[in-house]
Design goal:
Chain A is mostly beta strands and about 110 residues long. Chain A is built from no helices and eleven strands. The chains are: A mainly beta (about 110), B mainly beta (about 110).
């Protein structure tokens, strides 16, 4: 039981490049989330998926797209990376209304 | 507006001393309350949660928190801090919409 896994752990991109961050959970949770964490700004929600087949914008969705591929997997795509997207990205999952969220280990992304 | 405030950005305590981290929230409905801990370079781990019932909740690693509705607070406490408790601590509040509102975190340093 791995919980929430994320790949890659580290990534360096040049401005304008694209990439997809992968997230998978093996807890059979319905809800999944993508956050970014920046120094002094806490966790900010980018997108979330309340259940398979649905996605909704969070607090900071601009520059990102998501895909809920199936119940297990929720990917985050940067179509044209910008230096402002340098951050640590966390995926999380939860089950039930307002249940606790379980986090992956994070992806550290640097855009030069 | 819904919000979570952690008034202390950084706290330093001596090993063996007691600890209290403050969390105040503003939320229109009955809140669900959480404390998470993040060690350097790691994801977030749930310490404890409050949904209903006894307002004093026990968590992992010897932590406890008390929900005070009249003060809109959910402060985290530990009677005797260990060096391994040095980490970032986040308070979060949620309702019935599957999303959490996060505080900006309190960084805890422990002096030997």
């Amino acid at each position: 039981n791995a919980g929430v896994t994320q790949t890659p752990k580290f990534q360096v991109l040049k401005t304008g490049q694209s990439m997809t961050l992968q997230c998978a959970q093996d807890m059979n949770h319905n809800s999944m989330y993508w956050y970014r964490q920046d120094p002094g700004m806490g966790l900010r929600l980018i997108y979330y998926s309340a259940s398979e087949g649905t996605t909704d914008k969070g607090e900071v969705p601009n520059g990102y797209n998501v895909s809920r591929l199936n119940k297990r997997e929720f990917s985050l795509r940067l179509e044209s990376a910008a230096p402002s997207q340098t951050s640590v990205y966390f995926c999380a999952s939860s089950e039930g209304v307002s249940a606790e969220q379980y986090f992956g280990p994070g992806t550290s992304l640097t855009v030069t | 507006a819904q919000s979570v405030t952690q008034p202390d950005i950084h706290i330093t305590v001596s090993e063996g001393a007691s600890l209290e981290l403050r969390c105040n929230y503003s939320y229109g409905a009955t809140p669900y309350l959480f404390w998470y801990v993040q060690s350097p370079g790691q994801g977030l781990q749930l310490l404890l949660k409050y949904f209903s019932g006894d307002t004093l909740v026990q968590g992992i690693k010897g932590f406890e928190a008390e929900f005070k509705r009249s003060q809109s607070s959910f402060n985290l406490r530990k009677p005797s801090v260990h060096w391994s408790d040095a980490a970032e601590y986040f308070c979060a509040v949620g309702g019935n919409n599957r999303k959490l509102i996060w505080g900006l975190g309190t960084s805890l340093a422990v002096n030997p």
